[in-house]
């Protein structure tokens, strides 16, 4: 009897195991018939401009974003769009960025993502390379390429193998936040113009208690934390010194761009701040929160902090200034774009709504109420700038003030995250203070890792 | 002849009845078994298969990589750091949480006022969600406004950035496990017949001797169970690491990098699912081996008397 039971159970188990192994080994399923036309459209040449959906056809659009603070903006424009197109219903969902990226990883390959997604080109690159994201249709491409509408940097950032993907919505751009009261108290009348001045000012602005414990950072640097943020903030210092994270070696290949004097100086800048000049400390609160609480006199950050200050510290007496220069002068610019996915049942309506968002009145609303900078370069923002002058440092342009940003390569997030982990360890290492050899070794080890990641991705070439 | 035939017929009938009954039982259990296989065994087997592919979430049409993922693991600095961190953490956590829990269980096993209240207090952390616990610990560890630094300041100790240093970030989990382990030990101790303790007392045995010669040997199966569960929990540590290291004030990734965190990062951040699957297989094998060793050691001890 036991045998009968054992045989029955074994047969069932074997059957299940076999079916599971077979299903695991099987190639990925083809798109469902209903999705095939959309999927096919993704790989075909973009069609000519199509009108939006007829007004009598009910359409539901979904939009997902990775910046929860953008939700009021989307609701605002969705309301305006629905007034013009009563047949269109728009559903909005935002998530914290990292969770959002994971959600996209599960939904884009399976064609179950929203009709419109908002994401950076670098984060979307892996899907574009896998041919999972449609290129811009002809009318949207024409809109994007209109002279003066988007900078050359944004145009090239959204181009892969000669095709345009994503319509830039807003950009993350860095400037220096400085506390006017603290500067006055330290006898300083203007923000620093050079990186050397920034370090000198930070020493004067730092405050300690009677026991020597730092109670206010002269400059709040990103010293720890998960993910790529630490490396990105280090880049803010590295780039003006003449370095970068990955350098273009030509022919679509790259190499680590910081195994040089700029990289060593940038690491020294941080090590000195913590262990030599001691104007920042791990034992202090950091980032925008620290600036808002009066625990830091300076901070390099994006324009969203202005909106955050307005909500959390409305009485803070502060201003912003361009990023201080060194060997070169420039700021990071990270575009965040809108894409219409293969899953969209009404892509022409989705693109119509995306373009509707770009209207000047909506872009002004975005700047004033959310704080992210409109990506469009042909919009008059003077009314908002007059009202909130701290935005000026973010929108100012000067031929010598360059823009740099994330290269459009799939493994860049891995490069940044792994570099960040090494930097965090280095910032904690007191032995690197006044130790040029130690700094050089740390930089070299990190650069070797970056090059290894590039090699594995087939993107490495030796830089000249 | 007739008697034999009858006996055989009766026996066949009984056999058939038993077969029907057993098939009925199998059928009754089948839905649960199928759900279990589908939800638990299926993903594990699928993971094994994926570990031999260079697959990514974005590109499911992966290339067969053979043992490449496993070979790459042993040259991967981060995997080795994760393995070392997790092992050190598992050993420390198991020793610490099991011994403290045993001590508490022995103390609470006696009859005294508010004993039930103490049991509830110690068990309370077990039912608290890990994310909430981690967030609370993050606030306690806050360098500027955290309770821990505030209390230490009374003794003239300078503020410490607790979350930046690995040891402190790890230890936030320990107290959460103690309550569960304590409860299991408590049940075990209360299951030991009272007469054993009384007899030992009559023979003049002290508390230490009673614990050593009666409580501990009779608790051995429970001790093994608790040790195995604690080891598995320690090797699977993830949530508190993930929550406590996020944000600008979080702990450095490598210092608190554990195996599950590394798996998560490779799978859901870098989207190298094949590689992450091979790490998961390694974790499975480590936990399986440790569990078998623990059971083996106990059985050997039992066999030796």
Number of strands of chain B: 0
Structural class of chain A: alpha+beta
Q: What is the end-to-end distance of chain B?
A: 54 Å
The major beta sheet of chain A can be summarized as: 9 strands, mixed
CATH superfamily of the largest domain in chain B: MetI-like
Class of the largest domain in chain A, according to the CATH hierarchy?
Answer: Alpha Beta
Poorly predicted runs of chain B are 1-7
- Kindly, what is the distance between the CA atoms of the first and last residues of chain A, rounded to a whole number of angstroms? 77 Å
Shape of chain A: globular
Report strand % of chain B. Answer: under 5%
Q: What is the total tally of β strands of chain A? A: 15
Query: Total number of helical segments of chain B?
Result: 14
Tally of individual domains of chain B: 2
State the share of residues found in helices of chain A, binned by percent: 40-55%
Q: Quickly give the CATH architecture of the largest domain in chain A.
A: 3-Layer(aba) Sandwich
CATH architecture of the largest domain in chain B: Orthogonal Bundle
Report on this structure:
- The complex is a heterodimer of chains A (464) and B (305).
- Chain A is an alpha+beta fold and 464 residues long.
- Chain A has 2 domains: 51-172 and 334-400, Periplasmic binding protein-like II (D-Maltodextrin-Binding Protein, domain 2); 173-333 and 403-456, D-Maltodextrin-Binding Protein, domain 2, CATH 3.40.190.
- Helix content of chain A is 45%, strand content 16%.
- Chain A contains 19 helices and 15 strands.
- Chain A has helices spanning 2-25, 36-43, 71-84, 97-107, 121-129, 138-145, 152-157, 180-185, 195-205, 229-238, 261-276, 287-292, 304-312, 347-357, 360-369, 382-387, 392-395, 412-428, 436-456; strands at residues 59-65, 88-94, 116-120, 159-160, 163-164, 167-179, 207-208, 214-216, 246-250, 253-256, 298-302, 318-321, 330-340, 373-374, 402-404.
- In chain A, strands 1, 2, 3, 6, 11, 12, 13, 14 and 15 form a 9-stranded mixed beta sheet that branches. A two-stranded antiparallel ribbon of chain A has the order 4-5.
- In chain A, strand 4 and strand 5 form a beta hairpin.
- The longest helix of chain A has 24 residues, at 2-25.
- By secondary structure, chain B is mostly helical.
- Chain B has 2 domains: 1-50; 68-303, MetI-like fold, CATH 1.10.3720.10.
- Chain B is 75% helix and 0% strand.
- Chain B contains 14 helices and no strands.
- The longest helix of chain B is centred in the first third of the chain and has 49 residues, at 2-50.
- The chains are: A alpha+beta (464), B mainly alpha (305).
- At the A-B interface, helix 1, helix 4, helix 5 and helix 18 of A face helix 1 and helix 13 of B.
């Amino acid at each position: 009897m036991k045998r009968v039971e054992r045989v029955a159970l074994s047969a069932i188990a074997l059957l299940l195991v076999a079916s599971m192994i077979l299903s695991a080994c099987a190639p990925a399923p083809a798109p469902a018939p209903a999705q095939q036309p959309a999927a096919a459209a993704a790989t075909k040449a973009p069609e000519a401009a199509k009108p939006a959906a007829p007004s009598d056809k009910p359409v539901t659009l979904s939009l997902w974003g990775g910046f929860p603070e953008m939700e009021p903006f989307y609701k605002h424009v969705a309301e305006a769009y629905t007034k013009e197109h009563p047949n269109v219903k728009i559903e909005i969902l935002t998530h914290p960025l990292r969770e959002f990226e994971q959600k996209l990883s599960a939904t884009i390959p399976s064609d179950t993502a929203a009709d419109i997604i908002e994401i950076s080109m670098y984060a979307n690159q892996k899907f574009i390379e896998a041919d999972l994201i449609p290129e811009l249709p002809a009318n949207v491409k024409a809109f994007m390429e209109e002279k003066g509408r988007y900078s050359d940097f944004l145009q090239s950032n959204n181009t892969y193998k000669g095709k345009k993907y994503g319509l830039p919505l807003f950009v993350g751009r860095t400037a220096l936040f400085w506390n006017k009261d603290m500067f006055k108290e330290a006898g300083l009348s203007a923000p620093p113009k050079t990186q050397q001045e920034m370090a000198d000012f930070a020493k004067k602005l730092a405050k300690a208690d009677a026991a020597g414990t730092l109670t206010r950072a002269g400059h709040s640097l990103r010293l720890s934390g998960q993910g790529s943020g630490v490396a990105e903030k280090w880049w803010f210092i590295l780039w003006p010194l003449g370095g970068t994270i990955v350098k273009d070696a030509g022919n679509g290949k790259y190499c680590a761009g910081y195994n040089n004097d700029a990289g060593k100086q940038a690491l020294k800048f941080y090590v000195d701040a913590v262990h030599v000049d001691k104007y920042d400390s791990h034992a202090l609160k950091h980032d925008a929160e620290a600036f808002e609480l009066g625990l830091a006199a300076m901070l390099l950050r994006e324009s969203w902090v202005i909106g955050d200050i307005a909500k959390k510290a409305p009485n803070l007496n502060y201003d912003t200034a361009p990023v201080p220069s060194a060997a070169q002068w420039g700021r990071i610019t990270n575009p965040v774009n809108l894409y219409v996915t293969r899953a969209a049942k009404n892509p022409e309506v989705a693109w119509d709504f995306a373009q509707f968002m770009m209207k000047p009145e909506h872009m002004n609303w975005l700047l004033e109420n959310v704080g992210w900078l409109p990506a469009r370069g042909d919009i008059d923002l003077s009314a908002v700038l007059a009202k909130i002058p701290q935005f000026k440092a973010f929108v100012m342009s000067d031929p010598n003030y360059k823009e740099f940003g994330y290269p459009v390569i799939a493994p860049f997030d891995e490069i940044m995250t792994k570099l960040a982990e090494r930097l965090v360890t280095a910032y904690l290492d007191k032995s690197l203070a006044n130790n040029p050899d130690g700094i050089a070794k740390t930089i070299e080890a990190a650069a070797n890792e970056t090059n290894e990641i590039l090699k594995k991705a087939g993107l490495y070439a030796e830089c000249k | 002849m007739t008697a034999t035939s009858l006996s055989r017929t009766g026996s066949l009938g009984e056999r058939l009845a038993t077969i029907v009954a057993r098939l009925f039982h199998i059928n009754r259990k089948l839905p649960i078994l199928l759900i279990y296989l589908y939800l638990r065994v299926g993903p594990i087997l699928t993971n094994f298969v994926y570990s031999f592919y260079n697959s990514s979430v974005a590109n499911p049409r992966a290339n067969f990589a053979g043992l490449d993922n496993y070979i790459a693991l042993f040259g991967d600095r981060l995997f080795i750091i994760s393995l070392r961190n997790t092992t050190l953490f598992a050993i420390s956590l198991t020793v610490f949480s099991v011994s403290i829990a045993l001590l508490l269980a022995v103390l609470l096993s006696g009859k005294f006022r508010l004993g039930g209240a103490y049991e509830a207090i110690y068990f309370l952390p077990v039912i608290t969600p890990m994310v909430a616990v981690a967030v609370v610990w993050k606030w306690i560890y806050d360098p500027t406004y955290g309770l821990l630094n505030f209390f230490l300041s009374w003794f003239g100790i300078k503020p410490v950035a607790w979350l930046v240093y690995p040891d402190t970030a790890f230890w936030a989990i320990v107290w959460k496990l103690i309550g569960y382990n304590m409860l299991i030990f408590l049940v075990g101790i209360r299951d030991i017949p009272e007469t054993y303790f009384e007899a030992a007392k009559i023979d003049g045995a002290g508390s230490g001797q009673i614990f050593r010669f009666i409580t501990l040997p009779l608790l051995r199966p429970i001790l093994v169970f608790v040790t195995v569960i604690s080891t598995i929990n320690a090797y699977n540590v993830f949530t508190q690491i993930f929550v406590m290291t996020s944000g600008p004030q979080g702990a450095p990734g490598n210092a608190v990098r554990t195996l599950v965190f590394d798996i998560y990062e490779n799978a859901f951040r870098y989207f190298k699912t094949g590689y992450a699957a091979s790490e998961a297989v390694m974790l499975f094998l480590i936990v399986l081996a440790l569990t078998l060793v623990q059971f083996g050691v106990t059985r050997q001890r039992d066999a030796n008397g």
